[in-house]
Amino acid sequence: MDKYSDQQIVQMLSDAKTQRKAFEMIVRRYSERLYWQIRRIVLSHEDASDLLQNTFMKAWNNLDTFQGGAKISTWLSRIAINESLDFLRRQKHLSSGDDTDMTLADTLSADPYFDGNEAETLLQEAVATLPDVQRTVFQLRYFEEMKYSEMSHILNTSEGALKASYHIAVKKISDFFHARD
Amino acid sequence: MNEEQYIEQRVGRRSPFSVPEGFFDSFADEMVRSLPERRPRVKSFWLRPTFYAVAASLCGLLIGAAVYLHQFESSQQTAVQTVAVQDQGDSSFDEAADYAMLDNQDIYACLAGY
User: Fold this and answer.
1) Helix orientation angle between A148-155 and A72-95, rounded to the nearest 10 degrees
2) Record: contact B40-A122, CB cut-off 8 A
3) What are the tens digits of pLDDT across the range B71-109?
4) How far is the CA of A37 from the CAs of A25, A60, A85, A154, B15, in angstroms?
5) Which residues in chain B are closer than 8 Å to A170, comparing Cβ atoms?
6) By a Cβ cutoff of 8 Å, what residues of chain A touch chain B?
């Protein structure tokens, strides 16, 4: 499967006879990376799994909109992150009428697929206080060490704005920790 | 130490999340199986450039016709008004001539200074 380069896969995508095989290679190659991008935004494994499935389904149904000049990974990340941010907006809308008092720390400690220590839980709590896009910028830069140039294509924002956003996010998180020391 | 280094020292960069064993392999298999057949996308009638060209031409024709009709009607109205004013002038003159019991001969004589 890995013997094909992204460029070859893009060529295969443009041919109706080979596009299914090409897309299968894409799913196998990019699932894990996209999963972690989504998971760091939505936190729950079940939600991340559903959103990953939606991402690939959307990509498959909109193959015609993929421009060969762009990188497959950038195109997929853009769909995945938009799906995740839409999901968060829907969640906020739904939970606005919800009166449960469960904190994020409670939710994470009940999650069988979260094994973070106290500091890591605190970091997730701090990140959750950030606005959605700022949170995404922080996750992509801090955990994935993604270049601002790539992030700029994914989030359709200038590199300068992304650097400023990351700087503000780091400051807020640092303040969050200091307030609990 | 800057703020990023402070966070790194305090928390590290390890991802505290995990997934069920074999998740990615089973996900890919399941995902590939669930992909529907793709149908070639038929370009909608509304998106065709010919549609827009025809629509623009029709709009142009309609606007042109409306402007022409408007101008034609207003020029006709002006002509009718002029004739009406002229008629009104003639009829007043005739009335005045009748009142003064003047006929055309008297008027010519009057104008000639006899």
Assistant:
1) 60
2) no
3) 888 777 776 666 665 666 666 767 776 777 777 777 788
4) 19, 19, 11, 12, 11
5) 3-4, 7
6) 16, 19-20, 23-24, 27-28, 31-32, 35-36, 39-40, 43, 45, 49, 52-53, 56-57, 60-61, 63-64, 113-117, 119-124, 142-143, 170-171, 173-174, 177
Searching chain A, which residue's CA lies closest to the CA of residue B17? A114
In angstroms, the CA A173 to CA A152 distance is 22
Give exposure, B26-50, as e/b (b: 16+ Cβ within 10 Å). Answer: ebbeebbeeeeeeeeeeeeeeeeee
Q: How confident is the model at residue B41 (pLDDT cuts 50, 70, 90)?
A: low
- pLDDT, residue B109, reads 80
- Cβ proximity of A23 and A60 under 8 Å: yes
The identity of residue A156, as a single letter, is N
Closest partner residue to B15 (CB to CB) among A23, A36, A60 is: A36
CA dihedral A34, A38, A44, A49 (to 10 degrees): -40
Residue type, A79: I
- Entry pTM: 0.72
pLDDT at A96: 65
Distance from CA of A120 to the nearest CA of B (A): 6
Q: What ipTM was estimated for this complex? A: 0.82
β partners of residue B17: A114
Written as six digits, the tokens of A129 are 């206080």
